[in-house]
Design brief:
Blueprint: H1 10-38
Length: 40
């Protein structure tokens, strides 16, 4: 886990969190597709 002092700025943190949120949304869509396709 990153230390707080390693984070350059609030803007850098927001950018990192936005990227992570986008990845989570894509993962959720992929999971929905798997459930629909394979009935998991």
């Amino acid at each position: 886990m990153q230390r707080v002092r390693d984070i350059a700025s609030p803007k850098a943190l927001k950018s990192k969190l936005d990227k992570r949120q986008t990845a989570m949304e894509a993962l959720a869509e992929d999971m929905e597709d798997l459930i629909e396709t394979y009935g998991l």
